[in-house]
Predict the structure.
Amino acid sequence: MDDVCFVVFSTSLLFLLITVSFAVDSISHSQSIRDNGSTLVSSDGSFELGFFSPGYLVLLGQNKSVVWWTSLSKYAQSTMIQLLDSGNFVVRDVTDGKSLWQSFDYPSHTLLPEMKMGWDFRTGLKRGLSAWKNSEDPCPGEFTCGIEMETHAYPEVYFRKGGLKHYRSGPWNGQEFSGASALRPNPIYSFDFVYNDNEVYYMYKLRSKSVISIMVLNGTTSTRDRLTWIEAEQTWRVYASVPRDLCDRYNLCGANANCIISDSPVCRCLQGFMPKSPEKWNSTDWSLGCMRKKPLSCQESDKDRFVKFTNLKLPDATHSWVDRSMNIKECRAKCLNNCSCMAYTSLDIRAGGSGCAILFGDLLDIRKLPDAGQDLYIRMSASEIDDDGKVKTGIIVAVVIGAVFSGMLLVGYYVYRSRTKLKETEKREENLKKKGVQKEDLELPIFNMSTIARATDNFSDDMKLGEGGFGPVYRGTLADGQEIAVKRLSSSSGQGFNEFMNEIKLIAKLQHRNLVKILGCCVQEEKMLMYEYMPNRSLDFFIFDQTREELLLDWPKRFHIICGIARGLLYLHQDSRLRIIHRDLKASNVLLDDEMNPKISDFGLARILTGGDQTGGNTKRVVGTYGYMAPEYAADGLFSVKSDVFSFGILVLEIISGRRNKGFYDPDNSHNLIGNAWRLWNEGRPLELIDSWLESSCNLSEVEVLRCIEVGLLCVQHHPEDRPSMASVVIMLGSDIALAQPKQPGFFMEKKHEASPDIGNE
Ligand SMILES: *[C@@H]1O[C@H](CO)[C@@H](O)[C@H](O)[C@H]1NC(C)=O
Ligand SMILES: *[C@@H]1O[C@H](CO)[C@@H](O)[C@H](O)[C@H]1NC(C)=O
Ligand SMILES: *[C@@H]1O[C@H](CO)[C@@H](O)[C@H](O)[C@H]1NC(C)=O
Ligand SMILES: *[C@@H]1O[C@H](CO)[C@@H](O)[C@H](O)[C@H]1NC(C)=O
Ligand SMILES: *[C@@H]1O[C@H](CO)[C@@H](O)[C@H](O)[C@H]1NC(C)=O
């Protein structure tokens, strides 16, 4: 055991050659100290080392047995041990004086000044604190404290209890730990955080020898206390202690929530998020945390934005990535390009900020620190944000304008981009009424009457595309060549000036590639709305008419259209806290652009429900289209996102079969689409539903078709609560996860005369 240095302690006697009886700071390898009160004292007298008897602890080794030893990496012929003025207890090689072992590498529950707490990447040594097992037993207990980080990530201090995270400091931001506001410049100690390629550590130094301060991990209170020595009372007093309060408790509020200690209750979902379980949340069980109100649209990265949150303790940085040279702009771009990136911030907040840190996954353990913390940019769906970069807080009210457009309904839907609270909106509306309309009040480009007249050949009959309930629709071409569709509100439409203004004021830029786009309006003597012109008309032209085979769409195009409609509808349903329910989804309301991308149109019957968690409404006036209406809507006027899902299901089955659903039916009637689909499904031959033309064409993926049939049947289930949400539908269409068995479709047992909607608008 030549390469092992034995440091042997005994509670009685060891091979003692020279007895230490006076104050020395070191002994050689042949010397020992015993627990009769003899000690080592560092040269300036700051530290003394010896044995003590904590409580009832018994240190075994009465008879010269080894009770503790450590191995060294280096062979040493002759060693000595020395107690330094720092309190570091070092084993040295006598010949070259080099340190072979030091107690500072193995802290127990105390961090002394100038002791590093951290991680040496070169040797792999981690220096962390462990509280005593209990007040009598100095063995490492379950309460620990140390710097943790994933490789190349963002280091921060964690306290753990029994392995579980108990408290974290928040990452170092160049100035302090983002969540440890107690760590401020002070007269007692200075502190430093070093993070480079070799090591990462935290260390503090006393400013003056006369004020003594140490840091102790206390297993009894589960706190890390900074103690200062009170000379007059000969005692340690707690100077600061973490965790400080409820909000310091690790992840108290769950994911994506903010802990605000001055609030009651303290937990709050971050703006743009809502409780995963409102019941539990209300009963102050916050553990499930919060989820996004609107999903991110990662693939279309331009649809995501970032909202700036200030004075935050940064979230748990376990899953993070950092770069020291990037600036905040590059950081934003980096985050935007990675779907798993949820937030970004500056690595160093000094001098206006530098470096980049991006965080992945749920944002855990955030708190608000009124005079500390830092800025964090959190990813949001663009539809959650207005142009000011603030999360929408107001309430959106719907506007619904419809017009018939070559036999189909073309629609404008205008939603007001709410800036603040509903009250302010109402005030603005009032002012607007008084003042008349100012351009800046509208969120939509305004066209001159003369411009539109020129574009439409002065509203010539040749340019007329159709006539709707509210007035005629014209085709037009703007001076720059853009083709438009113009809906002109006729004075006889029954829509008065106030109603029209109300509608216009509520316009917001709902924009989605699968919704028809509104280009502008005219609010002069005539009221008009402009839409993008869709050259390929509507879906019904391309799936139902077997006599025009050249027009029929092959399966990949149909599947593309099904997925596009699903995404458009998902956007409507989840665009805001208030859900937009289309209420009239059908083949003729799906317009196709020149690349055959589907665009949902006709919001003439759409409703935007106010009141965030409301999922449906009730109407005495049942409007919609025969064959697409959900049973609860047709019979009782109950509409919800799930009634749209029903219509979507019908549409899917129509797209697959090339046949129209005729509405109410009975199970024996195989001429009815939905009845036929259900029968074939139950008889195990669902593929017979496929359009015969489609079946004979190539490119047919039976797996995809089967999946779409099953999704269609799930969507048309009788009970709204059984139908999947559009979010689930989009997932089901895009993956190969196992699907539930569809239950009986709606209307299955109905007789034709039982429910009859009073108005169909077809
Ligand atoms: C401790 O014991 C040693 C030898 O047994 C003796 O020389 C020394 O004086 C004792 N020290 C004290 C403080 O009693
Ligand atoms: C030393 O004590 C241990 C128990 O502490 C015992 O097992 C061992 O036999 C003893 N050795 C001698 C040499 O007395
Ligand atoms: C831990 O805290 C308790 C209660 O304040 C105190 O009695 C005890 O001395 C502390 N222990 C340490 C190691 O500071
Ligand atoms: C939760 O509390 C809020 C506000 O008190 C209330 O509006 C909401 O209905 C409650 N939700 C549940 C599910 O209890
Ligand atoms: C996003 O970041 C994660 C974690 O660093 C990484 O594994 C993944 O490859 C990144 N994705 C892209 C698209 O860059």
Summary: The mean pLDDT is 77. Residues 248-384 form one domain.
